[in-house]
Amino acid sequence: NRRRAPHYREFFLELLESKRLLTGTPSINTSRSIVAPAVGDSVWVTSKITDANPITSVKLTYGQGGTNTAFAETFGSQVAKPWTGTGADNFWTPSPSNPFQLAAAADYLAATNQSGLQFNCKGATSATLAATNSISTAGLSATVQFYVFAKSLTAADGWAFQVDPTGTGNSYTTLLSETNSSHAFQQYSCVLTGNQLTSNLKMRFQFTGGGGTDAGIIDLDQITVSVATATNVTMLDDGQHHDGAAGDGTYGAQIPAAAAGATVNYYVTASDNAGNTNVDPTGAPGTTYSYTVRA
Q1: Neighbours of 163 (CB within 10 A)
Q2: Element (H or E) spanning 18, and its range?
């Protein structure tokens, strides 16, 4: 019967949605009270949560432009050849140690009594320098910056910046690299995203050289990791947080007023008693909702 086809279609879609709710994660639909906030405006964020299982927590995470330096390395003032990884601002693990040295000539700032790291391409065909301890990059975003000097690098010579978000030191991914070049100190920068925003990030530099009489030199200095700070607020479904009626499945929390021109980023996380967790928007914290405060 052609007339009843739409009815069957709606029934089928409802059945699929019911199956998703029974087997999937919480569904989150988020909105805010003011689309384009101005100075002095606090913003209510509300999320409608749909789930076959009882919700155990709903959290609003937001940032208002603040940053925190999670890691900083200047390589200090000592001169050491070979360098075994101690005496700098942080502990490092060089492997092997013989191609590395701390030298005044490798200091980016050219400051008195300051050193930078130098890798001699004739000292090894392959070597790594890893920060010994994990770094917390948990936040809305994180940026890594450092300076590199390159002299007489051939196709066999180069460096790579790598991170391991698992914290094991066994799953490094290359984010930046360079070979076959010569240049003065130059700043390199990369933004960490997705699972790289974690409490136990491993970070290292990998170097390659030609060995023997290779004249290539790589200097590394002034490494920083900056994290966009975040605030976590519990969202409530109690009828007191711009969330409608108590117990209606809509949760609310407030973002305080911010300064003119500030960009506010935020996302929502919901969990249920079956251990399922979901975020809104998809991809958070690498992807967030945002607004810029009007004057």
Answers
A1: 23
A2: helix 5-23
Model pLDDT, residue 14: 58
The single-letter DSSP state of residue 13 is: H
**Would you say 89 and 72 are in contact if contact means Cβ atoms under 8 Å apart?**
yes
Q: Strands of the chain (E only): list them.
A: 27-32, 43-50, 55-63, 67-73, 92-95, 100-103, 116-120, 126-131, 141-151, 158-164, 173-179, 183-192, 202-208, 217-228, 231-234, 250-255, 263-272, 277-280, 289-292
As a whole number of angstroms, the distance between CA 53 and CA 58 comes to 14
The two most distant CA atoms of the chain are separated, in Å, by 89
How many whole angstroms separate alpha carbon 227 and alpha carbon 214?
Answer: 38
CB 134 within 8 A of CB 164: no
- Using alpha carbons, select from 264, 236, 203, 286 the residue that is nearest to residue 42: 264
- Which tokens hold the place of 98? 């013989």
The pLDDT tens digits for 198-249 are 999 999 999 999 989 999 999 999 999 999 989 999 999 999 999 999 999 9
Residue of 152, 227, 225, 220 whose CA lies nearest to 187? 220
Q: 235 — phi, psi (to 5°)?
A: -90, 140
